[in-house]
Fold these 3 entries.
Entry 1:
Amino acid sequence: MAVSLDDDVPLILTLDEGGSAPLAPSNGLGPDDLPSRTASQERRKCRGEGQPSSSWRRQQRASSLTAPWRGHPVSSSWALVVCLDLAVDGGKYTVHDSQAPSLSLEGENSPSSPTGHDWEMNYQEAAIYLQEGENNDKFFTHPKNAKALAAYLFAHNHLFYLMELSAALLLLLLSLCEAPAVPALRLGIYVHATLELFALVVVVFELCMKLRWLGLHTFIRHRRTMVKTSVLVVQFVEAIVVLVRQTSHMRVTRALRCIFLVDCRYCGGVRRNLRQMFQSLPPFMDILLLLLFFMIIFAILGFYLFSPNPSDPYFSTLENSIISLFVLLTTANFPDVMMPSYSRNPWSCVFFIVYLSIELYFIMNLLLAVVFDTFNDIEKRKFKSLLLHKRTAIQHAYRLLVSQRRPAGISYRQFEGLMRFYKPRMSAGERYLTFKALNQSNTPLLSLKDFHDIYEVAALKWKAKRNREHWFDELPRTAFLIFKGINILVKSKAFQYFMYLVVAVNGVWILVETFMLKGGNFVSRHVPWSHLVFLTIYAVELFLKVAGLGPIEYLSSGWNLFDFSVTAFAFLGLLALAFNMEPFYFIVVLRPLQLLRLFKLKKRYRNVLDTMFELLPRMASLGLTLLIFYYSFAIVGMEFFYGILYPNCCNTSTVADAYRWLNHSVGNRTVVEEGYYYLNNFDNILNSFVTLFELTVVNNWYIIMEGVTSQTSHWSRLYFMTFYIVTMVVMTIIVAFILEAFVFRMNYSRKNQDSEVDDGITLEKELSKDELVAVLKLYREAGGANSDIAQLLKILSQLERYEQNTLVFLGRRSRTKSDLSLKMYQEEIQEWYEEHARKQEERQLSSCVVPATQQPPGSRQRSQTIT
């Protein structure tokens, strides 16, 4: 494939609303011509992103302007508006002469002075579009002028993200030091209030950057930002009040601090989970209302049936009936709630059997089914939305990279300029390999159809492929034959099944050995011979695999890494036993992890494990989402229930035994009776988290609720019942997510039985010496970075050292669920693309056609097709 070294003028030039360039001058790849027209505002109109601002129009009506980056006078004129027909093949682009204003150099339509500045602006804006598509950022937040761009770049770097995250975590961690504080972490009011104000000032700075970037109108339209701003104002006022009064007051609003963490860039998974929860609420609420309706009906019926029994405290009032049946829904008080009535009339069990059958076994499972169906639909719609959003971002970026001379595609020069901003850590060789991997048509220009794969191809990590099949190919013949035999051995089925048999025997041995141990100090002071035998076998296996496969190939497999880690831990455990290192005895317990290797034998087990590993990142975000709810409820619990649960606190309640603490003498012995439930309190944030986790598990959760209710009021039950409903929503979403992921993987495995999911995405590309020389020449002429030139020279020297004309590179990346979805929905995706193209075409036709009454004097309509 030839490398196009010449350059051209951008078809679209991006300017700010004042007609000035938003980027500072920088070294381009070569001399470019100043474009004859700008389409920044027209492009926004064609995308349906609003009309040019009034200030922009006023500046366009000026008789002459000065371009600050070149000092050329620019006159106002009515020029062509480029409305690109973004077809899949990217072949033709229609240019309509509408009445939108644009800047031209000295009233001419053709440029006369060269500059690389114009392309640099387009490169950066195109990279921003790709980032917005990848991060699912809305296009109305796109920076519109130089000030907005500076703020955007400042707000989109990892140092800013870390500052944002640090401020949010500091605000959350202050709950450890504020009253009621953890005893060991208590700080003075002046100290923690000052720290809070410092963190809030950092948040103010973040929002100022966001306001400068978005503008006031867009800032107000962004709902999450407005919620964050409102919470910030409340927190600021409260912190100042605490600092002035030098005493803490009831601050329930501290529960809203988690919004600062949710809004962090690194918590995008949490925001996605919360969004899906809110989207799943309508069908969930419908089934929940049905559940509560039946609960109230049964509560009324139970009150009339069982309230005449004076020994039945569960149905003495209608309130007690509702509470008892609500707790019964969690089975925490069953069969206790049934026994008083059952003792008088055995037929009363029918009431409880029917209630549990309807509520617990039917409606609760129906709730899961409805949420799962909704969640599955949301996942598919989310994938479609993100896919089309990325496609639109790619089209926006593409329009900024095509030139006036070659509007049919992107040359390598423009692609390289884009990648310098989009993937700044990518080397020069990797940029060219990415361009070549995208260019399926094998032409000097990259078409829009090829450019649509930019996200998938840009994520590949490129490495030179070894010319030899094995690492030992260049060794002497004797050594080669030895290592070749080892390679054949470790790849044979017999060797693999032998190791599975060893692992199974080891597992049975560990089980029998553990069963025969007694309580107490179960760690032996001497090294058992079984440890030595099995560890020796595993060490020999590890040595043979490393010798036969080579270190690189061995460590490239996830299962081999797992085997290596478990064997290393087993060896450390052996050292701990041999040298009596008690702190490291826990490593011995990790031996049974070898048994996980047996799951590779059956395909269904492999699918389960693969699904589990795929779910780990998402499960981490779901766990963080649950912790955020925990934090909010913990703050509320501390504010209302601090210090009310203690030993013997609930002697007048029905759960007095659970909180009783007695210390009395029986003969010559002192007997201590403890209920221990007084430890489940809200005296600080850590105790509150433990208590809330016990409420989540729901076993005997009503004991904590009744203990708090006996010390406060009946309204306290609303806190616990609300927490149960919220956690039920979160847990149902988690279960639905696990089911959706597993079902999706099963369906994918059935549909693609011949494909391997575990190997990731791999792509091979051949790079010739002539191509490298051409690219190197391009970088030298353009004054490219020394590191890029050095990297290209290194590849050339490698070719010369091995006397080769070509070098094969292997691009590899892990397979994501998005890749699996692309294959699962490939038939529907084409329909989505066609529908999306039709909507774009309709939007362009409606936005690009300007009524004749709006035409300025002397203007005329014309259309031209650039091919």
Entry 2:
Amino acid sequence: MDDLVHAKSPPSASLVNLDSATATPSFSQTQTMVHDEMSVFVAAQRGDVAALRQLIESGSASATDRDEQNVTPLHWAAINAHIAACRYLLEQGADVDARGGDLVATPMQWAARNGYLYILHLLIAHGADPTIADSQGYNTLHLVTHSSSIMPLLYLLHQPISVDSRDAQGHTALMWAAYQGDALSVDLLLRHGANANLKDEAGLTPLHWAVVRGNKVCIRRLVEKGGDVAAKDAEERTPRDMAVELKSLGAWKRALEEGGMNEHGVKRAKPLSDRNTKIAIFVLPTVFFYLIFMTLSVLPWYTGVLLAMAEFFGMHHIVTRVLLNKNTYTDSVSQTPYFAGIITASLIWVVYAWVTRLLHQAESHPFSHLMFALVVGLCAYNFFRAITLDPGTCPKPASDDELKQIIEDLASEGRLNGQTFCIQFTALGSGIVWAPETTGNSFCSLRPSLSASGSSTSAAATDRDEQNVTPLHWAAINAHIAACRYLLEQGADVDARGGDLVATPMQWAARNGYLYIIHLLIAHGADPTVADSQGYNTLHLVTHSSSIMPLLYLLHQPISVDSRDAQGHTALMWAAYQGDALSVDLLLRHGANANLKDEAGLTPLHWAVVRGNKVCIRRLVEKGGDVAAKDAEERTPRDMAVELKSLGAWKRALEEGGMNEHGVKRAKPLSDRNTKIAIFVLPTVFFYLIFMTLSVLPWYTGVLLAMAEFFGMHHIVTRVLLNKNTYTDSVSQTPYFAGIITASLIWVVYAWVTRLLHQAESHPFSHLMFALVVGLCAYNFFRAITLDPGTCPKPASDDERERGAPERPDVLYPVLRSSRYFRDFNSWILREPCGCDSGFARPRRVSSSSLISCH
């Protein structure tokens, strides 16, 4: 690839200057200003609404003022995510589409670069135009795509802006997402009508750019949505030709193979359609179980058993090797109704055997048959109820207008995030995986004039430009891993400091969360404890980026989890302030102190209250955060919540954690573990009472009393044991339904052994068949509920975890493949396994905000 097409422009001196903090395209996560006295621009940058009001109402400033960089106060408030300041400035007449700074950008474009959803929503609500382009030709949709922020992208796709709008070089948002390897954004853009075959000025399609990154999920999704595998660029290269040239043909082949195609993009023939395949898999066990039981009834047991086993394995072979042939079908067995079909077949033949063989054999025991019918009916009902409790998808809105209204309502309420809105990703596989070895070329090509052959050169790997920045800095900030590797081989200083922030290459990469650049630099001896001129070390900067995998990797490097910046803030304080619940949880698991104070006396719990994120508040309190800690002004976190008018979030956070608003734990009737044991055992006890009631009383009173007992059991579980004031799990997160099915199976077997077995001694085959079917039913039920425990295996020790992290950061932990775990933002993120016994540990999804100034 040549440099005909440019990406986010390389950072310049103005982009990292504290004294002239202009809007930056790719580097600066923070925008700060240094002035001797308070001005309207400093107040806007700090989000100080009181100071803004004083300055504007006194007449010493206005909302339309511009500084020496031609930037308005609204720009500074927008880039620092101060929504209250933005709202006040707009009320005072600020120009919502004012252009300023070196890039001649609007406030909304400054906010879009960092993916500030609610700033975008506020500005658009006040008439901001998302189609305006800056001096680089990027409109708001391009810039949000650059940020890889999925929720802002979703919001913009329902605004009046073309999904196929182009930048100055003809790139669409889809091309950018494909180049960045952002499979979730690629999928979302395609769902909203993005054209997979448009070409930029160099003749490159989104599929070409996906090949450049080497992300097989993006490649597969584009081809599935009609991307032309034969499209040629200006140099007559197809995407496959480019894959050969970039030595990523393996990723190309795997991507198409997982999509049921050969390497030329031709779909392989399937024996059945996807829908009919699933129907066949569900029905097949019923047919084969009939053959198995007929075999056992006709042949002697010593040959019948062997032949029945052969038939069973033949059924399994048909399902896994013929119907689910990996060359034509991409789902695994656990993603099909195979196990559900086996359990259903077992139930069918249990009922068939009872009706045809046993019912007329024991006419003198009507209660036994009634009990058997009830138990089998409950077993069947609870089985089908259990498998439909979590379908793995969210209900789809009836129309695009309804969807748009839902998104608008959630954005207005400040709740448009992964916890309230499911973006279902259909290009499944092993998950979104970055491709660190295939990033040698990019939109913005770094082409240092270095020669490995020893010929004359005009530059060296240690050269510095007029900003005192080395080539390694530029390669690191643009995520060019091949260029970084080459520069390091040529003697580049891995800890060279440069730029106005006096930062190292690793710190430049950390600001954007580039995991593999960080891994490469640390492997070459980079020091993660080095701080820049603002006092931020690599751990702080990765936390600012809200990138969970780089944070997980750094927590296994030699750097203190409680290291402080120049103002005494720890990484935990930053994560809490950003509302990044996943980072907060990860830092606490790795020993971060929840009670350290910064220079202002604020603890992480104070900063979580500032953001108002109840998940962060709850997690900090659960991990020992002091609810009575006071800052320099003698304010506790609760006092601050009252002051910031977020007492409701504070109360809800503690209530969900089983505490009152003062942080005192409410007494529980049982411990969490014993509660779950009681919930699992209770149905067995109550089913005994129900059946005894039915056997003693007449049916017309027994049925009513039995129903009352059943609802009594349900009340005890849902209102006493799972009292919302003391226990936070829902019913579906407990073993309640598993206990009901288990109780049903227990009493089926009990009734058979005590009432039916001796009634039909002349029919041994019927009892054998019954035992086999019930055994299969029980086995497959317990097998089904243990297939996906909801957690990843926990490493045996911290040493084992640390040994795994430095060598292969791309395989730190396996990806959950169940469709129930939809993925968050531009990657699927897993909570680190905790080894707890609290049921399904689903990955949490939280909206991530970039760093803004504290003072």
Entry 3:
Amino acid sequence: MRALDRKLLRDLWRMKGQAAAIAAVMACGVAVYVMALTTLDSLTSARAAYYERYRFADLFAHVKRAPMALVPRVRAIPGIQWVQPRVTATVPLDLPGLSEPAAARLVGVPEHRPPDVNGLVLRAGGYLEPGRPGQVIISESFAQAHSIGPGNSVTAVLNGRKRRLDVVGVALSPEFIFQVREGEFVPDNKRYGVFWVGQTELAAAFDLTGSFNDLAITLAPGASAPEVMRRLDSLLAPHGGVGATDRDDQLSHKILSDEMRNLGAMAFVTPAIFLAVAAFMVNVVLNRLIATQREQIAVLKAFGYSRAQVVLHYLEMVLVIVVLGVALGCVAGGWLGGHLTQLYKQFYRFPSVDYRMDPGIAGAALVIAAAAAVLGMLMALKRAMDLPPAEAMRPEPPASYEPTLVERLGLGRSLSQALRMVLREIERRPLRAAISTLGTSLAVAVFVLGTCGADTIAYVMDTLFEQSQRHEITLFFVEPVADSALYDIKSIAGVVDCEPVRVVSARFRNGHHRRLAAVQGLSERRFWHRLIDQEGREIDLPPEGIVLSAALGRALGVEAGDTVEVELLHGRRTTARVPVRGLAEDLMGLQAYMRIEALNRLMREGSLISGAYVAVDPAAAGPVYEKLKNSPRVASVAAKSIAVKNFDDIMAENMRIMRFFNILFASIIAVGVVYNMAQITLAERKRELATMRVLGLTRAETSFVLLGEVWALAVAAVPFGLILGHWFSKVLIESMSTETLRFPFVLARATYAQAVAVVLLASLASGLLVRRGIDKLDLVAVLKAPE
């Protein structure tokens, strides 16, 4: 073994605590990087294979009613490869032991073979048998929630008539990887499922024999989706087409894509913070090490070692720490990635997701971590290279001692001697104090960053379900009905009040900008269902004109005072230019809002409503649910209390896990930074501290001189950390917002308080660990002059 290698091992052993702290911080950053990217890689591979094998549709088109004879004309459109005509409907379910409303999405499939587009993955049982009506294949998540499978049966209300459906199979489909009801963002597998029913039987049940109301289409390679959609819309318009949409707007795909995008962002934001802290720590530790080894460096150069060999020696030392941190990070990241993948599999239903660790990801982690460490040690390496042997043989010149700013202001006499010594040491080394403060402030920022999601979600839940949706039930009719239906709803025992809503799909145009969105027509006086923006303010609807969600306004390039072309895709399909009265910073989807009277006038129809927001007496909710789900006019019923409970059940465990890792990561950074700074200070001032002990200062007084500096910098780091955390969180929340769900930036005061408490406690604990070094000082040996 070379002499330099033996020196390397001895140095690493002597500074094992500091090396371990740096490796731990680096391991945290690498773990998050590996966890996020390996999970993203696994999900991406699983999705690509699933979509390709089972022909997930590229385009979707819904119509009111179109004859099957139209299908060959659809297939003849250039660029279309596969076409699957079908009947779809959402129907109430009558489930034993479940008083709350439940619903199923019915999808028609050929009786004699699986569909060509959006194929089925049978998980249990078999496919439909031709000539045997009343058979159904149910989604796996619904089957697991009810512990049912082939041989069981469910009762559905098809077009106002109860039908018993015999379960013959359990399946998955790429169309429903994320199974959630339209308008909701949390799965409720107990009260919502997907059922695949024979096309002929389903069409007959809804009086659509020989017709279809939905198309799923795949495109040939190189086909132009916008051009195909334009031709398809032109062909389907006379049959009540509501506009073709591409895969990017399909609910399941869109939610999965948004989640994967956020996962990719996680792989870079959080690791960058940890690696920045590790670089600071490497800089401080290596600078101190080179300063204490001046004479050794001089001897090495005098004995013939080149500058490059000396630099390589210290570079190898840092790389050993990097390799240790990356190895620990890869192991931890692989373990966390496996668990995160299993968590995703609970919500996103794939036939299989094989978690794998791509060696390229581990290699990239090593390169990035090494680059960060080398960046942190550049100044220290230059110092080692430029040190002449003759100069290095002499002791380092004593530091410049002068009164501190506080003393120059005449305030020194009011401070104790120990406190003045602490302030002098901080002012004497401003760069090191700044690095220490920045490192500790990043610990505060990491905790705030990790908790901001929980604060934002809590705010969104309160805004949606407490301030906006004061009602309990949201119901929609099969077809728009006269507003006199509100009196029928109010007459149900247990109903307190209700408000009307009219929802119409529309295509918005402004220049070359186009978007499909829903127009909500609401009454002038709204108490049970209020429109609330991100600031908690109620959105006012003018008598005429339209209010767009800010996201829709940005997508269309319009502002308040402009006009926008609106093509209503129901009824007479009227088109008009409508003045934009305002933009609302709402929370969900691309929405447009109008007075219900104005919307009905625009549609050239009478006083029609699509549904109602219903307030009920909680004690009578069960009978109300039962009455509504048995009504042939009611297409769907959703209960707010159930949505809130589902959300709380899902988020409670996730928030607990998130909080644990927030505390862990923030503590590791704080301990790593404070422990390193305290150890460096102890090494530099051993002689001073020993002299104080000999002169009669107690251990407590001596400890204050050492740790007072460290803890003072930790306290000074708090406000900077809160500012950084606030900024990091704002950037993160903005990056998470999508057209599907927009998050306002919210941070609770409790989050700031918890961040301060966690970091200061970690700093206190690490300082007390170093304090033991003072107790172990050999006063005689330390006071001997090194010269």
